[in-house]
Amino acid sequence: MAAVVTEQGVNHPTFKSPPSDLDLSIPSLYEYHAKNSPTHPVFSYVNTATKAIRDITFAEAWDRINTLIERVYLDYKGSPQNSVSRLDHSRPVIGILAIADQLSYLYLEVAIMSLGYTVFPISSRNSAQVVAHLVEKTAIRLLYVSADSEMQALSNSADKILRERNWQVWMRYMVTPKEYEKEHVPTEANRKVDIGDDDVTMILHSSGTTAFPKPIPVTRRRMINISKIPSFGEVDLAGKRIAAHTNPIYHGMGLATVIWPLTCGATFVLYPPVSPPIIPTPSNFIASWIAGKCDIVFSVPVFIEAWARNPAHIPALSSLDCIVYGGASVNKALGDMLTHAGVTLHSLWGSTEQGPATMFIPKDPPPIDEWEYFKLMPQATYHLEPQPGLKNIYEPIMIANDICAPNVTNMEMNGKPAYAAGDLLEQHPTNPDRWRVYGRKDVQIMLSTGENVNPVPIEEILGEDPHIVVAVMFGRHRIQPGVLIQPTPDHQIPAGDEKKAEQFKNLIWQSVEKANAHSPAYARIERNMIIVTSPDKPLDRTPKGSARHKVCVERYAEEIEKLYAIEEDCELHPELRQFPDRV
């Protein structure tokens, strides 16, 4: 393709970029750098006791991976396996369900891949039903589980469900830093196995926004192509220190921690490898990346928004090369405040199904008031499908090419496999090459009046209220929208307690009015269209914390139907409306 590739590690003293024609697998790239870039720091952390920076070189990382290769080989050899995978390949699938430090997690992942096995990292925030579903769906027979009580309880509950389905999974304790920090003793056998380009080397799972999470297979070829994404940007990242403390390795953003240093030479800075692991907070995250002398922060918005609310953090934030955020949108008001204070924000949009789709990282910062907009990665091929009745709104459809292809496909376009993301993008009014996220196609609410409601910005404003866990709008094919609101644990309302429900509405009303002020008249939330959820029917959420809209609305279908029935009755008998001043 004609798209320009930015060479990484040009004239760098310790990082030797691998030749593109070698086409090495991820484990082979670690081995390559252990020989050709042995002193280059691939990972780094700040020692909690001494506060000193501790860099981990490629040589050291590969040595630790080799220590775990032997552990995984013996664990699998001793397991009751001999199963055939349900993803059309016979190599074993090994799962990880753990609350663990990032280094232990990624070392184990690479060790599993080195043996030619398929690794499946599973989010620790899933329910037992979801874990059992994913284990059975992908034919996992060996599962590494951390020793903490939470994961032990979760794995035991999932195992009980699986046994009822006559499915047996062999569980072993998650690796710990003490295990691989000891000196590696080489074995006579060469355990490393390379696999074919179209063999599945890793499985990720979707967040399950609208249904159960789905396993997403990632082939060897696709993994190699994803590892090259930094070179599809406009910056040579070799030697840059990237803060990635809060990106869990089981997530797509965490996958970048494992594979991007191999092709760009950036050092990914993490929390120290301790057991139990450090629980991220906005406070310890910013302290860690400042102490770790980071140039770039790569994070989800919740941490960025917390820092933005503290003026004392602005000097540190503005001193960074940039902040790259993904997984959700940054609050508009806070993002505006940060960029006006000199902070550079870059959005990384994508999905597990298609991988990252935007440029990482552009050379020039976006205009201050247009930080939400991004450029699609030029190496990817997209068809932008216009959305009827929505000006400048398109659904991006990724069409497979030799460089960028989706991990899964759901359609064909121009005779080629393609993936319709289900996200909607809004085109910049004057620059057709720039886009911003508009929302999910499947959560747009078409009212019976013909107007379309985008619930995302309304739900985000309501979600900022300290008394609200999550909000979900409803109203498809109705005359007006409503919203489900789940209170925080200290403000939960017993089912049927209308008096307390009204008191809670008073408590959050300022946030409702704020959301309404940013919405067209037909999308505004009236007080009588708020359903406060009950503790016995919590709203279902993904591991990322966002609501599963379809599941939530179905869960409260009876209450929603009753609410609209009351509203219809009120229209016939206005005297029955509880709040006539809002008619």
TrEMBL record:
The organism's taxonomy opens as:
Eukaryota, Fungi, Dikarya, Basidiomycota, Agaricomycotina
A Pfam family this protein belongs to? AMP-binding_C_3
In its UniProt entry, what is this protein called? Answer: Acetyl-CoA synthetase-like protein
Record has Phosphoprotein as a keyword? yes
Looking up PANTHER family in the UniProt record yields:
ENZYME, PUTATIVE (JCVI)-RELATED, PHENYLACETATE-COENZYME A LIGASE
Keywords noted in UniProt = Phosphopantetheine, Phosphoprotein
Note the InterPro entries from the entry.
Adenylate-forming_Reductase, AMP-dep_synth/lig_dom, ANL_N_sf
Where does the AMP-dependent synthetase/ligase domain lie? 102-366
Q: Does the keyword Phosphoprotein apply?
A: yes
